[in-house]
Write a structure and sequence with these properties.
Layout lengths: L1 H5 L38 E3 L4 E2 L2 E2 L3 E4 L3 E2 L2 E3 L4 E8 L6 E7 L4 E10 L1 H14 L4 E4 L6 E2 L4 E5 L8 E7 L5 E2 L16 E9 L5 E9 L2 E4 L3 E3 L3 E8 L12 E6 L2 E7 L2 E2 L22 E3 L11 E2 L15 E10 L5 E10 L23 E6 L2 E5 L11 E6 L2 E5 L9 E6 L6 E6 L2 E5 L1 E3 L3 E6 L5 E5 L6 E2 L3 E3 L6 E2 L8 E8 L11 E4 L2 E4 L1 E3 L4 E6 L1 H7 L1 E7 L5 E7 L3
Parallel strand pairs: 5-39, 17-26, 18-26
Antiparallel strand pairs: 1-4, 2-3, 4-13, 6-12, 7-8, 7-10, 7-11, 8-9, 9-12, 9-13, 13-14, 14-22, 15-16, 15-19, 16-17, 19-23, 20-21, 20-25, 21-24, 25-26, 27-28, 28-31, 29-30, 30-36, 31-35, 32-33, 32-36, 34-35, 37-40, 38-40, 40-44, 41-42, 41-45, 43-44, 45-46
This protein binds zinc ion.
């Protein structure tokens, strides 16, 4: 037990946990082929599937845990533990199950895993000598039954306490959990249409038209007059309670009464996760006001469109000049819907000998691999399809130690490989972010610095960091110092915690240690609180009276602090 406690990452629970079955309520336990709602914390959804975030789409739903940690997390179906990862960022502590029907479920921001998984995570951390680890399991190595407690909710990674839950199909594509009846949180609110816009394909200019509302029908206040090929852009949203900021799940555009293009936002391919520019009009969208592009203007189509061929949704030579009508309808997963209609006048200049090809002269080609040798010492490699279409890239050295990459504001779908010849092993790579430098994970063996850059381009530099991290006051607490717990009141755990920050390269979150006597414990870093937390044995701490903190930054500068503990 001692060894387990020493390396326990549990912020909240002992490793001896009671892994019972959840009582499935009105005895629906016979329905083994349906997904079980994954927690008893609540049925409130704070963020839904396909919500647009600045660099990606939300791949699941965030279930409220009432601002607390420590609620039970249930296996949604029977199967086995497929993958587990631990990080202070992103998903935090994360668990993926593979089910007997070959689908997957994912549970993120957990505080603690089930006992067996915790043991294996601890062993991997000791072996790799770092906090952040990823474990892959053999089929059926750890079996789980539907309803079994596999973990407890937490606040690890981004965001405060909540449970992030995903369903993936057998190709690992994202599926909206709400389309499964057993996971549905009923939505009685009708989605709304706020604005309809058109964007010229050649000029790139947008025209926005507001709508007149009459019940669940909307009509355009203006007529669009277009003299170039264009596509429609929709500002519409749904709500499960609260603000209208969820994506509508089904969008359909009809022109002159005929189906033209439709979108189904209840699923998307794993590769589309980052490809926000394929679906969101970044020029028109503002925070919580998302404009959806109703056109496939990419060489690699985003998987939600039907038809899904490049340039479908584009209105041009495929229509005669003159007045046309359009209707856009949207629907949520519970069948609540709204629709908007209006007219546009097309007036394309047409040459007499033009072909009847729908989009003559317009085409989009995929991005091929490109290698830039910016100097004899610096090489950038853009892999094939690292952008969703062929674009011009401008990459140039700004000085001997800095460079700029411009990509027409397109996001990278794959990472750029950078190789920089250096003669100083202490240099690291940084990205300029809002007037600050942000560390990029890289390796430097004194001859070459190598890094992978994603998912935005910009300004990068090689810099020195010679200052070790700063450690704040070291404190003791007999409960989790940062989050309220849903655990029973008689539950006690002891923690040592302290603030830790580093100005340039950032804290190396994999290597924050607390030494009590000759025992070296891993600390967990909370990226929101800029603090490290370590579960301790209070009796041992009282015997030793003092502890040593060992922290380092990403450039390898180390700081050691010895401190007495006050109880
Ligand atoms: Zn989430």
């Amino acid at each position: 037990m001692r060894v387990l406690l020493n390396f326990s990452l549990a912020l909240l629970f002992p490793l001896i946990l009671c892994f019972g079955r959840v009582n499935t309520g009105n005895s629906k336990s016979s329905s083994n082929d349906t997904y079980l709602f994954p927690t008893d914390a609540s049925h409130r959804i704070n963020s839904g599937f396909a919500d647009y975030r600045s660099s990606h789409f939300h791949g699941g739903m965030d279930i409220s845990t009432n601002g607390k940690i420590g609620y039970q997390v249930f296996a949604a179906k029977s199967g086995y533990v497929y993958r587990v990862s631990v990080s202070p960022f992103g998903y935090g502590k994360m668990l993926i199950l593979k089910h007997d029907d070959s689908t997957f479920t994912l549970y993120g921001h957990l505080s603690v895993f089930s006992e067996k998984i915790e043991e294996m995570v601890g062993a991997a951390q000791r072996q790799e000598h770092k906090y952040g680890v990823e474990l892959r399991f053999k089929p059926d190595e750890i079996r789980v039954d539907r309803g079994e407690v596999v973990a407890y909710t937490g606040a690890t990674g981004v965001g405060g306490p909540h449970l992030h839950f995903e369903v993936r199909d057998k190709n690992f594509a994202f599926i909206d959990p709400l389309v499964f009846g057993s996971l549905d949180v009923p939505d009685y609110r009708t989605p709304r249409i706020f604005n309809i816009a058109v964007r010229g394909f050649l000029s790139g200019e947008a025209k926005v038209c507001s709508m007149k509302k009459s019940g669940d029908s909307y009509s355009a206040k203006q007529i669009f007059r277009m003299s170039e090929p264009f596509y429609f852009v929709l500002h519409g949203a749904d709500s499960y309670g609260g603000k209208f900021k969820r994506p509508p799940k089904y969008i359909r555009l009809k022109i002159d009464g005929n189906d033209f293009i439709s979108l189904n936002l209840t699923h998307f391919d794993a590769d589309d996760y980052l490809d926000v520019a394929s679906l969101v009009d970044l020029g028109l969208s503002r925070r919580l006001k998302t404009y959806y592009i109703l056109c496939v203007n990419r060489a690699i189509p985003f998987s939600v469109f039907t038809p899904d061929t490049p340039l479908s949704g584009l209105i041009g030579e495929n229509f005669p000049n003159g007045t046309h009508s359009y209707e856009i309808s949207i629907e949520d997963e519970d069948g609540n819907g709204a629709s908007a209609s209006g007219k546009f006048v097309l007036n394309l200049p047409r040459s007499s000998n033009s072909s009847s090809d729908a989009t003559a002269g317009l085409s989009i080609s995929p991005f091929k691999e490109k290698v830039f040798n910016l100097s004899p010492s610096l090489t950038l490699r853009f892999p094939e399809n690292s952008f969703a279409k062929e674009i011009d890239i401008d990459a140039r050295l700004l000085s001997q130690n800095s460079l700029e990459i411009e990509s027409e504001n397109e996001m990278l779908r794959k990472k750029v490989e950078l190789t920089w010849r250096v003669n100083d092993p202490t240099l690291r790579l940084y990205r300029r972010l809002r007037r600050r430098w942000s560390y990029i994970e890289c390796s430097n063996d004194g001859s070459f610095l190598r890094a992978k850059i994603g998912y935005r381009t910009g300004v990068f530099a090689l810099l020195h960091d010679e200052m070790p991290p700063i450690v704040g006051k070291i404190r003791f607490s007999n409960k989790n110092p940062f989050y309220r717990s849903a655990a029973p009141k008689d539950f006690k755990r002891d923690f040592v915690y302290f603030k830790v920050s580093d100005r340039l390269s950032g804290v190396n979150t994999d290597n924050i240690f607390l030494k009590v006597g000759d025992e070296k414990l891993f600390c967990e870093y909370d990226s929101k609180k800029h603090s490290a937390v370590c579960q301790v044995d209070a009796d041992k701490l009282r015997d030793e009276r003092k502890v040593e903190i060992i922290v380092s930054d990403n450039a390898g500068n180390e700081r050691r602090v010895v401190s007495r503990i006050r109880f």
